[in-house]
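ok trying again, last paste got cut off:
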Amino acid sequence: MAIVLGPNQYGKAEIRLVTVSRNGSVHTIKDLTVSTSLRGDLADTHLTGDNAKVLATDTQKNTVYAFAKEAPVGEIEDFALRLGRHFVDSQEPITGARILVDEHSWDRIDGHDHSFVQGSNEKRTTAVTIEGSSAWVVSGVRDLVVLKSTGSEFHGYPKDPYTTLKETDDRILATSVTARWRYTGTDVDWATSFAEIRSTMLKTFADKHSLSLQQTLYAMGEAVLTTRPEVAEVRLSMPNKHHFLVDLSPFGLENDNEVFHAADRPYGLIEGSVLRDDAPEAGLAWSTLPAF
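nice, full thing came through this time. structure:
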């Protein structure tokens, strides 16, 4: 029996980067978490401890900071592409790179040029994979919490001896959306594309009368693909943030869908992908990313 080294990669995880762009008294904040991963001819460091081909993770961290100074960060997709291509082009043993970026939101305080308030926990994300001269971009959003107080039903499901859930034709529907979409290429107006995709998903969630969270998930993905030709595939993960009607009858009160208990766990987890039937091959776009 032989023992061999399998697929491997290494890098610097969760580099915190904040930049301030100063245009006179008007400042703009970029708040990012960047993770780098490199692949290639790295067997020697695993098998013999020879580090001659290992670009130190500390160097990778320093590169992130230096790149943020040398040129504006700009859109996170462009920043990740620049970093990934740099590592592959500048280090002969390195044949592939994966750059993950989360962007944390800050909103300008009304009437102030350089004061900000942190937005919600929602994060804009991107995952850029470089392999040789090829590049794949998967962007998205995480922790996008949405709720509608009506326009949602759930009924017609199988009943067995363990079923206690009551059918309903009017319920609160709430979820925390994690969405990732695979682009067909890299010649994209990233800012416009992100804004339009996010707006489309929110509008579909609000407008679609829902008979199940699964139906809503598909409708959101379908709407993105219908309106955004630069997107080949959408993957969504949507936990059902349950709101249960409180029984107020012991107090002689009627609860007409007004008072709820918000339960954080356990929760239903609905996941799925929506893609064009003629979508180009994904290549390495989803490699090392969660399925959803």
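cool. The first helix runs from residue 43 to 47. The domain at 140-280 is CATH 3.10.270.10 (Urate Oxidase).
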